Please model this.
Amino acid sequence: MTKIRIIIFLITLTFTTSIFFIVSLYARGYRFDQRKKKFTPNGLLVIKSDPDGAQVLVNGDVKTATNATFPLFPGVYDVLVQKNGYLSWNKRLVIEKEVVTQETAHLFKSAPSLSAVTFSGSVNPSPSKDLSKIAYIVPSSLKNSEEAEGLWIMEIINLPLGFSREPRRVTDGDLIASSFLWSPDAREILLTTAKGSFLLDLSKFTPQTQRINIASQKEKILEEWNLEKQKRFKSQVSKLQDELEDIIIRKTKAVIFSPDEDMLLFTASGSASIPENLIKPIPGASTQKQERNIKADQTYVYDIKEDRNFWIIEDKITLNGWIDYDLPKESGSKNPENANSKRSLSWFPTSRHLVFAEEGKIVIMDYDGTNRQVVYAGSFLAPHAFPALSHDRLIILTNLGASSTPTNLYSLSIK
Model:
């Protein structure tokens, strides 16, 4: 009887161990090869999409529908995700054995819709540093009453069903020739007109008759704002490796952290080389082409978690959200030396995409510079395209191609 129990125990142990071993192989991507009669190592591709239910093609062959996980032999694959009514997502992926590769395809409408957000005209729209608000000028005209003209603020916070907060006026008057500058905390605006400089509290309306000229304090205010910005910036870059922190501080002219602060978008001011292997390699990290040798006036994205640097675009461009208080401004939140640029880049709220606006079109691309999708091709006043925090729309400045009509802000529905 004792021998039988021992035999049963050994059989059970062997069976359990075998099952556990097979399950572990399966989880690591191994699959049984019928021809070779053995388990062969594969990689696993985890593919998701927003919205889901999209068709997944690998090297032109239909594989499955999102969201899904499936094995692939080690190698290079062209992956296409498509869904009716949406632009297709595609990327070349390198699959490695026993490594899980994860991708999320954000799909955007192939026929986006436009709806007006302002109706009395909008001039010089400018986003706050965190892109949660847009300030703009409503010009004086025969059609606009005195109750409409002035400086206005619109909040574009996360409201998936639309804007429940109406734009509000901060101050009145004919401000078409004025300039303004956001404070670092987006609670104040420094307005400059021919009559002087005025610090406006955005929580209330200040009529022009009650505005106080602080021209004599303007330089001091800008110095204080610059110190506040630098303090925040140093806190952010202090989390980087020393070699990278030094490059970001000395060799960049504009830097914008992604909303989750796992990546940074920057324009180089000079040449430098980002050292290799600043962190231990991570399994499943991006296999897209890197560019660790940065050059002046080129714009890049650095992935902090994976230690990978990607080239995005060349030549001067406005990075929305970057404010340089060291130099004189003639606009709201633009890079001063690029104030007249007709191109801009913004982080999309996913922290994995960039919004690129230029004359005649708006592109959303993956953070590594791949999968560039034209989400809008039409009339708008470049580079004024700003992402709303609801992930489903952009705010653009356009007159819909009618030169006799004043420009207004429109919501472009892309999801």
